[in-house]
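GMP synthase [glutamine-hydrolyzing] structure dump, as promised
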Amino acid sequence: AWTAGSIIDEQVAAIRARVGDAHVICGLSGGVDSSVAAALVHRAVGDQLTCIFVDHGLLRDGEREQVERDYAEGMGIRVITVDETDRFLTALTGVTEPEAKRKIIGREFIRSFEAAQRRVVEEVGAAGGEIRFLVQGTLYPDVVESGGGEGAANIKSHHNVGGLPEDLDFELIEPLRALFKDEVRAIGRELGVPEKIVARQPFPGPGLGIRVIGEVTAENLRVLRAADAIAREELSAAGLDGEIWQCPVVLLADVRSVGVQGDGRTYGHPVVLRPVSSEDAMTADWTRLPYDVLARISTRITNAVPEVNRVVLDVTSKPPATIEWE
Ligand code: XMP
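structure tokens r here:
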């Protein structure tokens, strides 16, 4: 029978056998999946693990600080943060097609890990001067939706599966590859990963890059970040975090519509609220949020973010839509 304990024992033994005394890096996003993968590998090889947190410039407001704080407090694992904003934004210049964005982001993550590996070798003196193993928190649904499942179509390339470059030099360690999110959360709790990390709502590796419909520019990211922060604040204040699976906020940078503010015409962009309820992200329903919460989010966003003059609600289940817009 499946228990969190038995999976942990099995994976710890397998990781030890594979890694020996080599040094290992883990791509950490601060989310549930990579945190639990890191905790599992840490249980197996302890100090031979260094986590790399890539700030790709596609994070939400305050996210980098929050991840750094939560890890310093709760995990006891060495984390190196690298600021790679320029790398990602340069690579994404002029790109609007969703799969192209995903492939670029997947590739630049790996390039960032390669660059960081040199720092790890210097700072922790990893034996042999190079690092062979990269830990990723890939889950079963990531594999299926990237077309890796049996007979599965490629719905979208998750950054850590279908988005990987062909010239990947690392050997991947993916201890969660057969699991769903609820199982990963159970394993995380068993491993003592702090509740505020285990219970965190999903956020995709490609971040806000796949929530700007259109070109991912610093300016579009700034607008989306401001709107997203307001939506998250109001959902938390209404006590709804535990009820929704996640609520992407999406900026339709390619769409403009006419509005009126004060005594003037505006020609701004819509943002979409995409609150969803789900068990495992393979299917989802749109969450029936209270009207007063929606009203507050809408009023606050349009007051505070001048580039946005319309807030719309996505009322589509998955299928036929997916959770993220790209
Ligand atoms: P979709 O949009 O496929 O999303 O219905 C399903 C779940 O997966 C998250 N998601 C990703 N997570 N890398 C990730 O780590 C990705 O490339 C990625 N794409 C989507 C999404 O937020 C939702 O929870």
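The CA atoms of residues 32 and 200 lie 6 Å apart.
lmk if u need the other ones
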